[in-house]
Design goal:
17% helix; 9-stranded antiparallel β-sheet; 5 helices; DNA-binding
DNA sequence: TTCAGGATGTACT
DNA sequence: GTACATCCTGAAC
């Protein structure tokens, strides 16, 4: 098993967002290991991006995590009930991060389905299967990612990213994985940053 | 199938 | 008091 290390997260944030596609997000909770393949990401860059919580060097209690070391998990609550999972990228202090927008369960889908819908994977409706983890709030719900994990450092056993998990039969993605590029979702307030093409999916 | 509207609580003005 | 990097439900088609 090859974990993503600090060097990976030190990359430029847009590059890291692209490189995270097809990698494995591993969550260990309540003695259960769950794995999903990342299929959609967005880049947020503190210095120049009005959509980023830390735009222009803004430091508050909430944004403090964005100034932590690359690879740190940044989890915040949105709309009063949903969590969003990010990983800090770039040089420490750049206050940039990649939002994990969606993924596909590839190991222990039963445990994910129970957290998401309260039923086993085989009992999900067609509608539930289609809407399994295709959004940041849904992904966090399925993996039990809450603000308790905010500021979790790189190297934690509870939540980490991997290039491959051969012991589970999960291979490394190709280096030239094709992907799509577009505008980010849900940032209508961000003026010129609305049009930055920093959303990636495969 | 698409669409409008409400839920919900924390951070920040 | 207002805004928010969202999701679910129910109604209309």
């Amino acid at each position: 098993m090859a974990r993503l290390d600090e060097k990976f997260f030190l990359q430029d944030t847009v590059t890291a967002a692209q490189e995270l596609l097809g990698r494995y997000l591993v969550r260990v909770d309540g003695g259960e290991t769950m794995v999903c393949r990342i299929t959609e990401t967005e880049a947020y860059i503190g210095a120049i991006d009005k959509a980023c919580h830390a735009y222009g060097g803004r430091r508050t209690k909430r944004t403090e995590t964005l100034y932590a070391a690359p690879g740190t998990a940044y989890v915040y609550l949105i709309y009063g009930m949903y969590s969003c999972l990010n990983f800090v990228t770039g040089q420490e202090g750049a206050a940039s991060a990649v939002l994990i927008r969606s993924g596909t369960p590839v190991y222990n889908a039963d445990a994910v389905a129970r957290r998401r819908f309260g039923v086993a994977a085989a009992e999900m409706s067609a509608y539930q299967r289609k809407n399994f983890m295709n959004g940041p709030g849904k992904l966090c719900r399925g993996l039990s990612v809450t603000r308790e994990l905010n500021a979790l450092p790189l190297g934690s056993g509870a939540l980490y990213l991997a290039h491959d998990l051969p012991e589970l039969g999960l291979e490394r993605r190709p280096d030239d994985l094709p992907f799509h590029t577009g505008k980010r979702i849900g940032i209508d307030y961000a003026e010129e940053a609305i049009d930055f093409p920093w959303r990636f999916w495969c």
